[in-house]
């Protein structure tokens, strides 16, 4: 069974630029999560989707971050404009019931 | 806001030694999960504990959930270099939402 796919794996941008990350969850998983993991910290939930609807986006900085899952499968997370403090690994996870399966993440460096 | 505190933050030991990692909170969780994360990869689930006082064993790893479901521990017996990684605890509440601890970076030296 294929795991959660994410791209790109690495991205380097300058502050104030825009960036987008893509996630393809495990087939059939209705729930999709985006996490931010800053170096030396645990993952922090940014947004949770159930199919194509948002379940929890309480920790998403909505002034610069946006996410969508239009067809209830793939998802994109966008940052516009990026700040230095956005440098982190962005993890996507999906679940069928309770167990979450994580992708390898996208490492973002903002210069 | 629910917080999970892990200790120690860093641990470097020799192969064959035993170790314990702690995960503490002032909040009650419906379940608690332990993950291991290796560089360049996402966290991988090791175990889920649900019942207060529950003990689960996974080969050389022993996981315990506190009676009040606020804390947990991970004990590794005879650590091996392959055990090296970032160990994360995560508490579940309100469905599938997880709150992660800061992690314990374990290094096992040959």
Query: Segments of chain B where pLDDT lies below 50 for 5+ residues?
Result: none
- Give a quick account of the main beta sheet of chain A: strands, pairing sense, barrel closure: 7 strands, mixed
> Per DSSP, what share of the residues of chain A sits in E-state strands of 2 or more residues?
over 45%
Q: Output the helix-strand order of chain B.
A: EEEEEEEEEEE
Structural class of chain A: mainly beta
Name the chain pair whose interface involves the most residues: A-B, 22 and 21 residues
Give me the secondary-structure category of chain B.
mainly beta
Radius of gyration of chain B: 13 Å
Number of helices in the DSSP assignment of chain B: 0
Average pLDDT, all residues of chain A: 95
Separation, N- and C-terminal Cα atoms of chain B: 40 Å
Number of strands of chain B: 11
Q: Please, could you describe this protein's structure?
A:
- The complex is a heterodimer of chains A (111) and B (110).
- With 111 residues, chain A is an all-beta fold.
- Helices cover 0% and strands 50% of the residues of chain A.
- Chain A contains no helices and eleven strands.
- Chain A is globular, with a radius of gyration of 13 Å.
- Chain B is mainly β.
- In chain B, 0% of the residues lie in helices and 54% in strands.
- In chain B, strands 2, 4, 5, 9, 10 and 11 form a six-stranded mixed beta sheet that branches.
Question: What's the gist of this structure?
Answer:
The complex is a heterodimer of chains A (111) and B (110). Chain A has strands at residues 5-7, 10-13, 19-24, 31-37, 44-50, 53-56, 65-68, 75-79, 88-95, 100-102, 106-110.
